[in-house]
Amino acid sequence: MRYFDLALIAVYLVGITLFGARFRKQQKDLRDYFLGGRAAPWWAISLSIVSAETSTLTIIGTPALAFGGNLGFLQLVLGYLLARIVISVLLLPHYFRGEMFTAYELMRRRFGERLRRWTACTFLVTRALAEGVRVFAISIVVSILLGTGEVASIVVIMALTLFYTFEGGMTAVIWTDVVQMVIYVSGAVLSFMIIADLIPGGWGHVVAVAVPAGKFQVFDFRFAPNLEFFSRTYTFWAGLIGGCFLTTASHGTDQLIVQRLLSARTQAQSRLALLASWVVIFVQFALFLTIGVMLWVFYGDANLPPPHPADRIYPQFIWQYLPVGAGGVVMAAILAAAMANLSAALNSLASTTIMDLWKPSGTGARPLQLARVATLFWGLVLLGIGILARKWGSVLEAGLAIASIPFGALLGVFLLGVTTRRVGESHAIAGMLSGFAMITFVRFFTPIAWTWYVLIGTATTFLVALLLSYLRPGEPARAA
Questions:
Q1: Nearest 10 degrees: Cα torsion 291, 292, 298, 301
Q2: How many whole angstroms from its chain centre is CA 359?
Q3: Helices 150-198, 3-21: crossing angle, 10 deg rounding
Q4: What superfamily in CATH does domain 3-89+120-391 come from?
């Protein structure tokens, strides 16, 4: 046992929990609890967006992808940029017309109460499943640290994260995100330098070995309109087009990210925070993928068998090979990312439950108390799903694939809301059901890669609803 490293991790866990909980005194109503009083600066929201979309999946899953493949995952990041531009033009102006607490309020304005509930419930189920995978990912790290079982490993992290999210609300989420992101990026940079030092010949040797093996390859421009083309997960076209649709859905219709955009002081600051977050995301993914390539060289040179499953490769290397002190800092960084994402999920799940399903009347302590109860409820749900997620394969790809299944229907109905006036509520609901059905078929009965799921679901939802509006017209149009 590396007791000094464990002490560092313990100090971090206690410190970040107390730091987040101190924001309780700023929570006076639901606006404070769910939007942070719209007082956070754009740069803090930008870093919080990065923390929310990063999670433990990125930190332990991304190096594993490069270890077993190359840098092709970066092709998705190109789509991430295009998506942010689309969101800034199409969706943000609607979100800043009046004060909105959730993305699904837009569906009520445009279509009606039924569709608001449909989209809110879709988010709740999707986010709970995806976060359950992230909870399991935490257990991989903690079990390496303590040698404990998977179930016992996640209880402490979940309890601490739930405590400060319960107490401090969105303000605590944003500012702990900022601290945690600085920690885990610093930890990755430290890992990079130490791994390079451990490899004889350093970075030059990594390049000499990895380049001929194709480990630094980023782009795959192969194109052919056939099933084999759509079954390849990481290509330029899947990254640009599929990544754009995936991120437009995740950042434009998913309350996890939209809640941060709504917390900005103005629409201009919200747009700036969203666009600036892409720069950080690009650097971050490039860094973690490169670490995966370096670990491939390290294990190959030493003729060591890689751990199983592959997602253990990075955290296990840290704990076995990094010197005392450095290992503790980097492991604390991984836990920081886990807590940042979990706190974001808990607050967004609670806000959607309260604002879209319960719809409180009045202000004051009673709605705020119920918001905290909803936070506690979702903490227990995520703990349960995390236990069930132990056999779902690669944590990164499992999380993205789960999210991609309903995202298409969500994005399709949001695009209907902001680009058409013809489609009514019943048309949109039928379109969503069609989108779900199509993606379910694609997921279980075709080899098509998950990177195309959102595009297929969006197109199906949009086209079916639009067609029905011509076949069965008559619903009055609403302004978004």
A1: -140
A2: 26
A3: 110
A4: Sodium/glucose cotransporter (1.20.1730.10)
Handedness of CA 339, 345, 348, 350 (dihedral sign): negative
Map out the domains of the chain as residue ranges: 3-89+120-391
CA distance 124 to 403: 11
- Those residues with Cβ within 8 angstroms of residue 342's Cβ, 6 or more apart along the chain or in another chain: 131, 134, 135, 138, 157, 158, 161, 162, 165, 382
Place of tokens 């030092």: 197
To the question of pTM greater than 0.85 for the whole model, the response is no
Distance of CA 106 to the CA centre of its chain: 22
In degrees rounded to 5, what are phi and psi of residue 147? 70, 25
Under a CB-based contact definition with an 8 Å cutoff, are residues 176 and 19 in contact? Answer: yes
For residue 233, the number of C-alpha atoms closer than 13 Å in the C-beta half-sphere is 13
d(CA 314, CA 64): 7
- 256-304 pLDDT tens trace: 889 889 989 899 999 999 999 999 999 989 999 999 999 999 988 888 8
Structure tokens at 82: 């295009």
Q: Collapsing DSSP states into helix, strand and coil, what is residue 368?
A: helix
